[in-house]
Amino acid sequence: xxxxxxxxxxxxxxxxNAAGTMTTLGASIVVPEAISAAAAIEKHFVRMSxxxxxxxxxxxxxxxxxxxxxxxxxxxxxxxxxxASMTGCNLARIERLPDSGGLNDEIVIQSxxxxxxxxxxxxxxxxxxxxxxxxxxxxxxxxxxxxxxxxSRTAAVLHVVSHHTVQExxxxxxxxxxxxxxxxxxxxxxMASEYDLNGxxxxxxxxxxxxxxxxxxxxxxxxxxxxxxxxxxxxxQNRGIGRSxxxxxxxVLATIAALDAWQARDHSAARQRELAIxxxxxxxxxxxxxxxxxxxxxxxxxxxxRLELSIGSDAGLFAWELADRLAAGDPAICVxxxxxxxxxxxxxxxxxxxxxxxxxxxxxxxxxxxxxxxxDGHRISWQERRSLALQSILRWPD
Length: 398
What we know:
By secondary structure, the protein is an alpha/beta fold.
């Protein structure tokens, strides 16, 4: 089925993704190896325990962990990791969750890591029956804050690596692991959108959680890697709360294929392709009134640069108005607008083709030219924009 046929048949808007690996846009372009693997297994029956064991081997090879497990998504991985840290491999306790009475049920997390990635991370913790214990304040966490938050009721410490976290003031992962290890508490690391498959395990994390369908380009799934006993407990959660987070044979095999493809990938060539796209955007938008362009390195150190657009008053419209006008087109052009309230938009090259990238630059120039000429910008406040977005969500599926 061609792209045109697919979008026409299902009445879908074509999307040019200049926002990155966004769940709301379908995450990533799936690599051919994952597509082939998923198609190959669909006609066959397998013992899922054996398939997951092969996935464990692949995850261990890719991450340096003792074992691994494939679940529904990284958010599911967080809930399962929390559950595993409370129950171990005790099947009675696994069946009892989310009733955690009598168990060590406290999960310590730095205050600045209590993010919302589309849903609150606190909820992923509480779904397992655990209680959230915050360490420090949003922008100030000292070692003694974490040390004091860990008690005899602590099941694990959860550390989040994400651009959503407060970037100033948190304790680094290496220090978190050292403090927790001294108290015999495992550290769970949320690495959903990160390139680094080896770092957390090498530092001594108990579990590290990744998305299979973001940078890896697999089908929708989550990867849990780490200590064999903890991973085994995550797997056994299928007899409890994990049953509603199960993943099919096609996603497990596609995850194995995506991990293999990631290790064989020419990362240097991919990096150069993305840098060329960013440079082209920067050239196309140079001199556009009200737009200041800067190359922006990834917040968490992933090897990816984006183009930061600072939208000033001379552009004739607010940053969020520009983002909305781009998204209202056909094709819709979606940019990263997390910081639009601050007048900042970001163009991400990791999920875009060269021809589409040129369309992005041209569309931005066109919308700014139109807004300046018609003087129809600066009409929707940030508060109004936020309200309209919520209203739209609440009207779904209409």
